[in-house]
């Protein structure tokens, strides 16, 4: 059985079940920490059977102990690279790079830990990278699933992270330059729901914007105030809108950059946005949108803003995928989040609801 290096209490019962590993942990860690070193005997036997009863009647609690310890270990090892998306629903994300100082290849691994993990169920995972082609996804996914099969019942997130890092290092050694993101954009069918793999483009979205800043836009240097809407949660997916007043394109870039400084927003599954700026001199609207991997969502958001006739505003809707496919409902939630914050900030009084 492979030793992850994260769970030293497994050693006294190496090769046994997670239940026995937990008993080992509690006896050799918890009791020793209290200064009580137990020999084989009556008291040790009592504790042993108490733990067996705990395992029998509260297995979820027991395996949550495994998860808590693994999460603490990963947070300690990876520091700022490790991100808690939603502690209650056990959603986490880690940014993995080929090189910590000068990364060329970067990928985000997002995981959801079922209550049965690590005993009988693997983590639900998503691989997020704008350069990730379909074949890369399949190959990497197969590698992760092979690790799980070889280590059933064990904590495997550390092994997954280091396997992904190994792949990124190999890519870095083969290619002198980093990924060409523009060449890897893939079209997706509007009616297809995102699966466990998706394109991760949030940080590159900023670079993709083509801003032309003129001399009379000096007023745009100040960052507009950013408002945050009330989140909407459906089947473990969470949607939240963010809004900022903008009158120059540069302000759009500034607001997006500021939002992505928030680790939770930067690690969202999708950050969909649209903006409309009214040009007084030309009496026309400067407007654009971004799907960020959620096909057609940006266009739908911009269309909503056109219907509501709002102007000089940027709306960003972050979605954190919860592992359950929502189908068309995801578009309803995205637009309802946007509409709610537009009403909240008095950009419109329209009662339009999105279905």
Q: How would you characterize the overall build of this protein?
A:
The strands form two sheets. Strands 6, 7, 8, 9, 10 and 11 form a six-stranded antiparallel β-sheet that branches. Strands 1-2-3-4-5 form a five-stranded mixed β-sheet. It folds into three domains: 1-57, no CATH class; 77-186, Roll (Ubiquitin Conjugating Enzyme); 201-344, Ribosomal Protein S5, domain 2 (2-Layer Sandwich), CATH 3.30.230.30. It is α+β, with helices and mostly antiparallel strands. It has helices at 18-33, 42-57, 59-78, 134-150, 157-174, 202-208, 249-260, 263-266, 297-308, 329-344, and strands at residues 82-86, 91-97, 106-112, 124-128, 197-198, 227-228, 232-234, 237-245, 270-279, 284-290, 313-320. Residues 1-40, 58-63, 180-218 and 350-355 have low confidence and may be disordered. The chain crosses the membrane at residues 20-38, 45-66. Residues 69-171 form the RWD domain.
């Amino acid at each position: 059985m492979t030793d992850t290096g994260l769970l030293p209490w497994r050693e006294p019962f190496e090769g046994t079940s997670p239940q026995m590993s937990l008993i080992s942990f509690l006896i050799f860690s918890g009791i020793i920490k209290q200064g009580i070193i137990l020999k084989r005997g009556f008291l040790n036997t009592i504790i042993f059977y108490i733990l067996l009863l705990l395992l029998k009647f509260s297995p979820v609690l027991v395996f949550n102990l495994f998860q808590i310890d693994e999460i603490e270990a990963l947070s300690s090892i990876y520091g700022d690279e490790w991100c808690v998306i939603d502690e209650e629903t056990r959603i986490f994300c880690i940014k993995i790079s080929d090189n910590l100082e000068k990364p060329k290849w970067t990928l985000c691994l997002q995981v959801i830990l079922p209550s049965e993990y690590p005993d009988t169920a693997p983590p639900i995972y998503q691989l997020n990278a704008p350069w990730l082609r379909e074949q890369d996804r399949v190959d990497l996914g197969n590698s992760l699933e092979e690790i799980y099969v070889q280590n059933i019942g064990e904590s495997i997130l550390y092994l997954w992270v280091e396997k992904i890092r190994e792949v990124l290092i190999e890519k870095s050694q083969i290619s002198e330059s980093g990924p060409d993101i523009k060449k890897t954009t893939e079209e997706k069918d509007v009616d297809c729901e995102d699966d466990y793999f998706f394109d991760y483009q949030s940080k590159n979205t900023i670079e993709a914007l083509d801003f032309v800043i003129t001399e009379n836009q000096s007023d745009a240097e100040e960052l507009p105030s950013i408002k945050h809407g009330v989140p909407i949660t459906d089947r473990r997916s969470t949607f939240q809108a963010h809004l900022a007043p903008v009158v120059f394109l540069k302000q759009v870039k500034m607001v997006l950059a500021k939002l992505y400084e928030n680790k939770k927003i930067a690690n969202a599954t999708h950050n969909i946005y649209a903006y409309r700026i009214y040009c007084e001199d030309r009496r026309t609207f400067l407007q654009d949108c971004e799907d960020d991997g959620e096909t057609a969502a940006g266009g739908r958001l911009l269309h909503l803003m056109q219907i509501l006739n709002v102007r000089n505003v940027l709306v960003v809707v972050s979605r954190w995928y919860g592992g359950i496919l929502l189908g068309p409902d995801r578009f309803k939630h995205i637009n309802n989040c946007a509409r709610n914050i537009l009403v909240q900030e008095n950009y419109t009084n329209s009662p339009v609801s999105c279905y």
